[in-house]
Amino acid sequence: MELRAVRGMNDILPDEVEHWHRLETAFRRHAELHGYAEVRTPLLETTALFVRQIGETTDVVEKEMYSFERHGESLTVRPEGTASAARAYVEHQIAAKEPVSRWYYLGPMFRGERPAKGRYRQFYQAGCELYGDAGPLCDAEMIQLVAGFFQDIGISAFQVHVNSLGSGDTRARYREALLQYFTPMRDKLSEDSQRRLDKNPLRILDSKSQADKDAAVGAPSITSLLDEADREHFERLCHHLTVLGVPFVVDPTLVRGLDYYTRTLFEVRATESDLGAQNTLCGGGRYDGMIESLGGPKVPAIGFAMGLERILATMPRTAAPRGPGAYLLPLAAEGADKALLLARELRALGVTTEIDGRGGKLKTMLGRAERRGASICVILGDEVSRGVVSVKQLATRTQEELSLDGAARIIADRLRMSAATPASSAEPRGNR
Ligand code: HAM
User: Fold this and answer.
1) Would you say the CB of residue 79 lies under 6 angstroms from ligand 1?
2) What is the model's pTM?
3) Using alpha carbons only, what angle is made at residue 54 by residues 50 and 57, rounded to the nearest 5 degrees?
């Protein structure tokens, strides 16, 4: 039997990981610039955490969780990060230590969804959660963080959707209004939505089925049910976004698939990508009741998470990563010893260095260095008997001889200089 990766779970090979590193580094930088610090929670949590926080009638809890029994306990591999972070926030009594906390996380999440482009069973999220500030100002700043991040990594074709679900009993009143609206057309709804109708009619608005979309055309809008305070919160959010110059659309059909949200909801969707229905790059919102429902104090919270596979499929890759700084080609036995020593010296100076120990003709070895994307080739052939090496800059094709003594430092300087000069540093490596 052929052993393969589990369906919907992908290997990310070193070539691809380079792009991930750049994306993750950019995310960390943005989050940290906004005052967020990283939190790492376990991949496994008790099943009850997700059932209670995400909601029993959501798709995630109803059919997508990887849950199992062990030592008499039901455990679940995390399908998302918000409930875990909130659990940790309450468990470690963070509210008693600081009034406002800003946490971010990066890591794999697991949902047994039907795999498609942009939809996997193991996928990676980067997210931020902010505890302790109820104001619309931080909602706007958070949306701006996401929009600024996308711009920074070269994604400009996206649209920000915002909505408010209100607080208190607004959701319950909206549920009632939708129930009344959809019940007479129950037969026209998809099978899933017929089932959802009594339990969670909001989810019908979120459905991908065309029949449900048609049925929802005249559905009541939540905006008319918002109370004064909720309406003001939402208006201030829209005002702040306008001041910040973040373009957005108010989308009363935006409900999102998780039950914990209150007030602000937002999504960022790619407008030019081949992700099809999986074009939501980022989703988030306020969940002012979660901390209290986990046994903590009354602390408001807001957060978002973005899907890294979807972002990588959307972002331009022109500034492709480069190969090693120095690529050493030992041509003879004596060259091999010198190459080992020179490589050690170069790495101590911070130069990424590889030795091609496979031997062969010089032309073949130079070809390999090109394909590897190296910046500088160091040839250790007959010349080492004279105490020198030949150093070739691959971008400019210039070659020079350098004394072995001191060659490492000169190579390191050359690389530093070429990295500072855009013309030679950004040689694209093409699609690899
Ligand atoms: P979510 O909308 O379920 O929200 O997921 C957030 C993002 O994760 C999606 O917009 C998408 O980019 C990505 N994503 C979700 N499922 C998959 C999948 N199967 N394959 C690939 N990418 C996927 C949450 O998870 C909330 N915890 C967000 C949040 C944080 N709300 C408040 N704080």
Assistant:
1) no
2) 0.83
3) 110
Asked if residue 132 has its Cβ within 6 Å of ligand 1, the reply is no
What tokens were used for 201?
């009619």
DSSP result, 247-301: --EE-TT---S-TT-EEEEEEEEESSSS-GGG-EEEEEEE-TTHHHHTTS-S--E
Q: How many CB atoms lie within 10 A of CB 62?
A: 17
Residues found in the chain? 432
CB 176 within 8 A of CB 169: no
Give yes or no for residue 303 CB within 6 A of ligand 1.
Answer: yes
Atom of ligand 1 nearest to the CA of 286: 32
27 Cβ neighbours under 8 A, 6+ residues apart:
104, 106, 126, 149
Average pLDDT over every residue of 137-166: 95
Token duo for residue 402: 């350098």
Whole-number mean pLDDT of the chain? 92
Q: Kindly state the average pLDDT of the residues 156-179.
A: 92
Q: Is the dihedral of CA 226, 231, 234, 235 positive or negative?
A: positive
Mean pLDDT of 390-416: 93
Q: 333: Cβ–Cβ under 8 A, 6 or more apart, which residues?
A: none
Per-residue confidence band for 425, with pLDDT thresholds at 50, 70 and 90: very low
What's the pLDDT score for residue 322? Answer: 67
Report the DSSP pairing between strands 249-250 and 262-270.
unpaired
Are 18 and 310 in contact, with CB atoms under 8 Å apart?
no
Q: What is the pLDDT of residues 314-369, one digit of tens each?
A: 998 755 556 899 999 999 788 999 999 999 999 999 999 999 999 889 999 999 99
CB 161 within 8 A of CB 145: no
